Amino acid sequence: MITARAAATFEPVGRSVATARGFVRDTLQGWGLAELIEDAVVLTSELVTNAVVHAGTSAEVRCLRDEQGVRVEVVDRHPERELPLAEVSRGRVDLNSEGGRGLMLCAALADRWGVDYTTTDKCVWFRLAQQTVAVGTRTAGPILPADLLPETDARVRVAVVEVDRVDAITSWNDDAQQLFGYTAEQVVGKPLADLAAWPQTPGTGTGIAEALLLSRWEGSYGVRDSQGRTVPVYACHLRIRDAHGEPSTVCLIVRDHERAILQSPVRLPSHGGNGGESRDRTGDSLDALIGSPPPDDLDGLLQRTVERARDMLDGDAAFLLLATDDETELEVRATTGLPSARQRFARVPVETGSGRYGSARMPSVHPDLAHTPGAVPLLSGTGMHAVVTVPLKVEGRLTGSLGVASETPERFSNEEALRLQFAADRIALAVESARLTELERLRRGSLAFLVEASELLAGTLDRNQTLALMAQMTVPTLATWCAVYTIPEPGSEPVLSYVLHEDEERIDGIKALLERVEAPAPDLALGVRPWNAPSDAARNTALRTSLRSLALGGRSPSETPGTSLTTAQAVGGETVVLPLVARNRVIGLLALGKPTDERFRQDILELAEDLSRRAALALDNARLYSERTAISQSLQRSLLPPELPAIDNVEVEVIYRAAGEGNEVGGDFYDLFPIREGVYGFAIGDVCGTGPEAAAVTGLARHALRLLAREGLGGPAVLERLNAAILEEGPRARFLTLLYGELWPQPSGGALLKMVCAGHPLPMRLSPDGTVESAASPQPLLGVMDDLELFEQTATLDPGDVLLCVTDGVTERREGTRMLGDDGLADVLSNCTGLTAGAVAARVLRAVERFASDAPSDDMAILTLRIPE
């Protein structure tokens, strides 16, 4: 016979599961069925989740009470979705799968359960039998034989000790005197810590001073008696306050072997199940609830853990934090019922003293966070009041913290803390094993990432390419967006040099925002640090733009609200700044950012630090290379002749190629310059070797030629003095081949040539009929002998004639055993009749390049003079 009925319908949204749990809890609490609440809430959570999440329909929850207990029905509108009843009855459901797990719980927890189908809906129901307990009983145990009862001394003594806010003893009863041998006069006013032999090592756990500040503590330690011996004791500490609000702590202490007198029961009241068998409620291990075997990946295991922990204690939210290697910080890794995107990977310091998360190393129950704000920073501003937290420990080392929270104050007691701690102890080793597996995988991936990054960075000495590589390696692997600041000179302000976002359409908006924000300080002492300026500026800009748009009744002409909001969302998460340090100097800054409500994982930040060190060195190498290249190129350009003069009735063309990467000038050189009115000097030469050493002699030769020629000296005298200057260089001297001549344009057309060919490839003259002949004869090269006897040769260029002058980089072009040579060059020139001077030079260059497949390895210069017809 039904004595009470309650029902409610819940929409197919995720929050409905928590609301349904609250509905069942409040209903059963109102009916006085508190002992059935936990099982009912767990089963309701599973069945409503199946309806609103998996079936995707609304769910109606009905609570029906009778004289023997309560029946809960969950009705959904998806009857065609059958349940795996046969598999459940045979115990073959995969506990890692969502399907069928709720039915397995029904089979395990309920007295009876079943499924009813109609044409329009499906009803899954379970029944829980009411326990019969004595009035006013909170916990009770069965009647036991005398030999199974706990053993005590002839007389049980319970020491009652009270300490004040500074931990000094204020009260010491007779039993305390009998147990430890001290009179009240001997100990009152002394700190309890002077007598206690506390088991924790100072600085690594919760000490006695911290334990005495907790609202409740229970456990074992030792007390030194008046004979100097350590008496093992079991104690229960309770924090109280007097009528004036003055806090103190009452300590109830017994001998350790008599702990049963004070120890909280490790089992909750048992109740009858199927067949009248009792069940150990404390044995509801968390690993059994999450499935066996647990999920392979760490994130899946942690998420399943917090979900089941929340359901096990009928909470509104749950969270799990993992400790860093040095146990100084806890990192949020999984949450349920909280804004997980905002909280994920947030870091909370672990303190050895009280406050903040100081109680992470031991179970803790907070009846109402409104009375202790900041006690659990993770829950600030979430609307949660009551919270119970327990540590995850492996071999005595803190590896994490598990917590369950409720919106209802004083929702949890020490019994829930014991249940949660029991479950946490069972799951801690699996979590630590999965964490180490993930850590090893991440380290392997990080090592491979850094090796690849180092190879890419080492493959370029271009500054702009290094900046681009630095950004492309961080986005999106390490961050959603990044910005690189460079410091041009020591002591100068950082300059925004590169911005990248994984969505290219947002790059311009972020770049414009960062240009308005003051750059972070390039202080090496600050290290890796958060940077809030971009997110603050983005939110302010978005707010101003939206208000302006509303005021104008439309969009701002310069910036739309959508653009501002998009940029604000892109940079609204955590932003960190890493200094780029090379050779003990900050040469730049790397800013990494996440979108709204996202944070960085600690291992990602550590990987970013390693990358920043490599990138900084690569960037500094590129800077030094660019500076030296710029200096080298500037000096090399000074060795090249200025712009060639225009000569009436003479076409002039020069092609110059220096061997070696980054070289603009080598051992080959050319020049064309006015000597006096109507007379021009021209030269083409080749210094032994290539590179800077040869270029130094090149500069000497070119400038000496100009100076000596303008002094009125003839060609042989110019070259003889140049030879003497080269020999004076001593060990730095290099021999030089040189063709030097004077060009005398004639008023009637044509030109007169006076030339000296000192060991250089002979100049070739092309006639309009295609005839090719040498225009001079060979003479000794320069830089070898002191006494030279050089002579000047004369030739004429008629209209249509072309004079071709080259260095040996042209004639000695090789392909295997073949060489272009003078004959090959003559064949190329013979096919250039009718071409301009520029076309002739270009055809010769093309012939040289095509002669062999590999790139030219020697300097090369081509000078052509042509008399127009």
Automatic annotation (TrEMBL):
Q: Which Gene3D superfamilies match?
A: 3.30.450.40, Histidine kinase-like ATPase, C-terminal domain (3.30.565.10), PAS domain (3.30.450.20), PPM-type phosphatase domain (3.60.40.10)
> What SMART domains has UniProt attached to this entry?
GAF (SM00065), PAS (SM00091), PP2C_SIG (SM00331)
Q: Where is the PAS domain?
A: 160-190
PANTHER family given in the database record: STAGE II SPORULATION PROTEIN E, STAGE II SPORULATION PROTEIN E-RELATED
Q: Say if the entry is tagged with keyword Hydrolase.
A: yes
A GO biological process this protein is involved in? regulation of DNA-templated transcription
Task: Name the UniProt key words of this record, in alphabetical order.
Answer: Hydrolase
Q: Which GO terms describe its molecular function?
A: phosphatase activity
Q: Does the keyword Hydrolase apply?
A: yes
What organism does this protein naturally occur in?
Answer: Streptomyces zhaozhouensis
**Protein name, entry field:** PAS domain S-box-containing protein
